[in-house]
Amino acid sequence: ATVMYLAGIALEAANAMLAPIMLGVAMDDTIHYLHSYQQQRKQGLGVTAALDTALHYTGGALLATTIALTCGFLVVGASGVVSVQTFGLLCAFTVVAALVADVLVMPALLKTLGNGKRV
User: Which of 37, 66, 67, 84 is buried most, with the most CB atoms less than 10 Å from its CB?
Assistant: First the structure.
């Protein structure tokens, strides 16, 4: 929504569906990464080591799905219909932003909150 506001994109029916759809798409990679992190923590690794190991094992998959989804949404973004084009471009941006959040923001949060057993 912030990106839409800053870019001057009006809220329309096509892009109103963006948030719930992209939440589901972006959540898949996050769950994959968090599951790997939790497995490493159960094996006794500390927070930083578990994050590094989880990223080592899942990073390729996260990058591959991000590239595939971004390319797919960029094809949609090449549409001649403005609302479909906007939807595709916003989805592509959201997928890349989700990867950045998974790789940069989530580890920072887990390092801050990760001393507990449940994280």
Answer: 37
Please report, for residues 41, 47, 54, 57, 82, the alpha-carbon distance to residue 115 in angstroms, rounded to integers and kept in the order given: 10, 7, 17, 22, 48
pTM attached to this predicted model: 0.82
How many other CB atoms are found less than 10 A from the CB of residue 40? 20
- Strand, helix or coil at 86? helix
Q: What is the DSSP letter of 10?
A: P
Spatial contact of 49 and 40, defined as CB atoms under 8 Å apart: yes
Kindly state which CATH superfamily the domain 2-113 is placed in. Answer: Multidrug efflux transporter AcrB transmembrane domain (1.20.1640.10)
Which DSSP symbol is given to 115?
Answer: T
Angstrom distance (rounded) from CA 63 to CA 113? 25
